[in-house]
Amino acid sequence: MNKKFLMRLMSAILLILTSGIIIVPAYAHAFPERSSPHVGAHLKAGPNTVKIWFDAGIEPIFSKLIVRSAQGQKVSVGPGFIPKGQHALLETRLKTLTPGIYFVYWSVIAFDGHHTEGRWYFRVK
Ligand SMILES: [Cu+2]
User: Fold this and answer.
1) Which of 1, 69, 86, 90 is the most buried (most CB within 10 A)?
2) Could you tell me the distance, in angstroms and rounded to a whole number, from the CA of residue 109 to the centre of ligand 1?
3) pLDDT (0 to 100) of residue 2
4) 26 C-alpha vs ligand 1 centroid, how far in Å?
5) How far is the CA of 31 from the centre of ligand 1 (A)?
6) Ligand 1 center from residue 120 Cα (angstroms)
7) How confident is the model at residue 21 (pLDDT cuts 50, 70, 90)?
8) For residues 87 and 82, what is the distance between their CA atoms, to the nearest angstrom?
9) Are the C-beta atoms of 115 and 98 separated by less than 8 Å?
10) pLDDT tens across 57-88, in order?
11) How many angstroms is it from 122 CA to the middle of ligand 1?
């Protein structure tokens, strides 16, 4: 093996390694982009649903959206769901809400397998 061949071999290996890094798909974690009601909203009447739109696709089986009153009572129906034809929208139906503060708990697994979760509130006057 001469020196020139060795140099070529090394640069070829380097090229394969670096291009290998480039072709790895760049998936993102899922974070909320917007919601209905808005984070921290003060509402005149209780909403019927809570919706959170994420910036990446989420897995239906592992994604949860639960709403609780300030006293910790669950006021949402079921664990939340992803409407048909959607992949980044998480939704839940609500029972009739009386005036007070409500906490929205969300927990999702993105298509890349990464888990994110959070909590925010809205208020019904
Ligand atoms: Cu991720």
Assistant:
1) 90
2) 9
3) 73
4) 9
5) 10
6) 21
7) very low
8) 7
9) no
10) 999 999 999 999 999 999 999 999 999 999 99
11) 28
**CA 96 to ligand 1 center in whole angstroms:** 36
Which of the following CATH numbers is that of domain 32-124: 2.40.50.150, 1.10.150.120, 2.60.40.1220, 1.25.40.20?
Answer: 2.60.40.1220
- If you measure from the C-alpha of residue 32 to the centroid of ligand 1, how many angstroms do you get, rounded to a whole number? 13
With tokens 């993105």, the residue in question is: 110
